[in-house]
Amino acid sequence: MEMVNALGRRKSAVARVYVSEGTGKIIINKRDITEYFPSSILQYVVKQPLATLGVEDKYDIKVNVFGGGFTGQSQALRLAIARALVKINADDKKALRAEGFITRDSRCVERKKPGRPKARRRFQFSKR
User: Fold this and answer.
1) Cα–Cα distance, 117 to 126 (Å, whole number)
2) Could you read off the pLDDT of 71-124 as tens digits, one per residue?
3) Where do the structural domains in the chain lie, given as residue ranges?
4) Is there a contact between 64 and 15 (Cβ–Cβ < 8 Å)?
5) Which CATH code fits 4-99?
6) Which H or E run includes 16?
7) Interior CA angle at 26 toward 22 and 32, to 5°?
8) Using DSSP, how many helices (H) and how many strands (E) does the chain show?
């Protein structure tokens, strides 16, 4: 199997993933996953598509991720890994879609409106 690449986005984070056969190593921006995401919850989020299919130790994953915060980056990475796994084996798409890993989460920050302190928040009303 040659290297398969895929793209994942969430909020303002973009993750490019390169998947090849290997032993289960995940390298993010030239650092190990445990070093890049110290939180075990974020590591779990990244590995969810692999765990769903039971192929944690079958593929090596190299990642370039930028933009956004660590939560957005981890979820962008999850989407990219799921897309790459579908490219490798199209039969896995049904299982990944059932878990919700194929759908791109399009929610992002609402813009600030003029005459208001935030997007929807109004200044305090003064009766007198």
Assistant:
1) 16
2) 999 999 999 999 999 999 999 999 999 999 999 999 999 999 999 999 999 999
3) 4-99
4) yes
5) 3.30.230.10
6) strand 13-21
7) 130
8) 4, 5
Closest among 46, 49, 36, 35 to 76, alpha carbons compared: 46
CA-based diameter of the chain, in Å?
A: 73
CB neighbours (10 Å) of residue 112?
11
pTM for the model: 0.90
CB 59 within 8 A of CB 20: yes
First CA to last CA distance, the chain: 73
Instruction: Please give the single-letter amino acid code of residue 72.
Output: G
Q: What share of the chain is helix, strand, coil (3-state, %, to 5)?
A: 35, 25, 40
User: Considering only CA atoms, which of 31, 30, 24 is closest in space to residue 61?
Assistant: 24
| Rounded Cα distance, 86 and 51, in Å | 14
